[in-house]
Structures are given as structure tokens and as C-alpha cells.
Amino acid sequence: MTRLGKIARLPRETREELNVRLHNGEEGKDLVAWLNGLPGTQAVLAAKFGGRPISPQNLSEWKQGGYEDWRRHQEDCARLLMEMAGDLEAEAGEVRLEEDLATLMAMALARLLREAEEAPDGGGPGQDDSGCGAAALAVAAGWLPGGTVADGAGAVGREAD
Predict the structure, then answer these.
(1) What is the extent of the structural domain holding 40?
(2) Of 59, 61, 76, 124, whose Cβ has the fewest other Cβ atoms within 10 Å?
């Protein structure tokens, strides 16, 4: 379903950040003020909505539509990552599931970051074949145990102390 409201027409990065903030429980009035203060938001509102600002009602509608779609997508991505980690665990035998998942997420995040650096338009990272983009992996990266990180080649290691 294509969404046509004010928030749906904002840049993808802005919508992603808004969704993360909603997920973290930020208050609506603060989010509306933040959105209306962004230059990208002001440009979209001027071009498509006669400069009328985002209202609490617009945010409420987004929470019931676009945010819920995003939340379901995050859950689907997490489920897919767990299935992939389970497949790795079955192939590897006795290896711990969280280590497999950390390796999988670190490699995928490294690939997405490399794609972002190579993008000719300087845009953000693309999406993998599952449709799970950088936002899902960045959130998931917080789950990596013990500070595990990936280098640009996808190798996994520990952060220097």
C-alpha cells in the first residue's frame, strides 16, 4: 500500500528515525516539534502541502499505518535472521546460536555499509534480498555480544580495548 500523507512523503531516513523514536517511546508532541524543525520536512511540506506543518493527528495516523508496517517488517526481519542463524547452527553443529547470529548480522551490516560507501549518489545502504535494510541491521547490531564488530570485508572480531 502506497501511503500519501505528510509523514509518508518525508525522506526515508527521516521516517526510519521517526519509527525508531516511536519504538523507543518518545512523546508525540516532541516528535511533531522535531519533525517540523527538520529542513527536509519543511521542504516537503512547502512543496506538497502548502507549508502546513505536521500535526499531532498526522503523527497519530502514521503510528496506526506506516509505523505499524515498519514494526511488522522489523519483526519479519528478526524472524528471518533467527531462521538463518538456526540454519547456520544446524550446519555447524555445536556452535552457539548467538555467535552464529552475531556473525551473520555483522557480515550483513558490513556489506550494507560498503554498499553505502560505493553508492554513486551518496545515498544510504541498499536492502538485501530479504528486503531487510540497514535500519533493521543497525538495531540488531546492538545485540552483538561483547562488542563484536565486522571490518569492511565482513570479518568478525572484537573491538580494541
Answers:
(1) 7-64
(2) 76
